[in-house]
Every structure is written in C-alpha cells, then in structure tokens.
Design goal:
- With 125 residues, the chain is α+β, with helices and mostly antiparallel strands.
- 43% of the residues lie in helices and 18% in strands.
- It has helices at 34-37, 42-46, 67-79, 81-87, 94-118; strands at residues 2-10, 16-18, 28-31, 60-62, 121-124.
- The longest helix is centred in the last third of the chain and has 25 residues, at 94-118.
- It is globular, with a radius of gyration of 14 Å.
- 31% of the residues are buried.
- The model has no long low-confidence stretch (mean pLDDT 95).
C-alpha cells in the first residue's frame, strides 16, 4: 500500500473535490510505513517540518492558503535529502532510500505546483 498525493479544490459548499490524475502519472507519496518511518520521523520533525509529520497520525490535507508554506517545507527536505535518507528507517541501501525519497518529494512538488496554479490544496492519504 502506498500514500497517494492528490490536488483538490473546495466547492462553493465547502466540499473537497479531488482532481483527476492524468493516465500514466505516478502519484505515490511513499509507502504506508513512511507515515512514521520517514515523514513522521524524529529527524524530519527536528528540521521543523510541521505538515508531513501529521501523516504519522492521519491523512494530510493542506488547504490552499497553506500550500506556499508546505512548499517551503518540502524544499527544505529536498535540500537536506542526504540527511533524511541517512536518518530514517530503510529496508534498502541508503542510495536506494535516497532515490525513493527524492522521487516522492518530486511528486509532492509537482502537486504543489499544480495546486498553486489553480488555487487548490494538496491531499496526501
């Protein structure tokens, strides 16, 4: 099982509408276990992350007004990628783990770009 990364908009009645994902677009935000072993890890928390660690307890819903701050958090993790890979639990080599994290951060960054373009939010669930 893996975490899904989606972009959503709020309807006039306040309901969340998840946007369709084009065919062939990979939208994994990591393995389900990453809720605690990567995104909710002590190291990621120590960097000051406040959005992704929420995944350790529940799904993450970043509303449109918070997307710019979420973008900064993801950029920070991307800038500290080697440290994140070395400091989080992994079932594979550090190099493979680093590549997996980088791929997932790129997917999240692409969803953030799309959300910013349309005034939407990002859901990781």
């Amino acid at each position: 099982m893996s975490l899904l990364v989606d972009v959503f908009v709020r309807e006039p009645d306040g309901k969340r509408r998840i946007l369709d994902v084009p065919d062939g677009v990979y939208q994994s935000g990591g393995f389900e276990s990453w809720r605690t072993t990567v995104w909710g890890s002590e190291f990621v928390r120590s960097l000051g992350a406040r959005f992704l660690p929420v995944l350790a307890y529940r799904d993450l819903c970043v509303e449109a007004e918070d997307v710019p701050e979420f973008r900064r958090e993801v950029a920070l993790l991307h800038a500290r990628l080697d440290e994140v890979a070395h400091s989080t639990q992994r079932p594979r080599t550090v190099e493979e783990h680093r590549h997996q994290i980088e791929t997932r951060l790129q997917i999240i960054e692409e969803s953030i770009r799309k959300a910013l373009e349309i005034g939407g939010g990002v859901l990781i669930w």
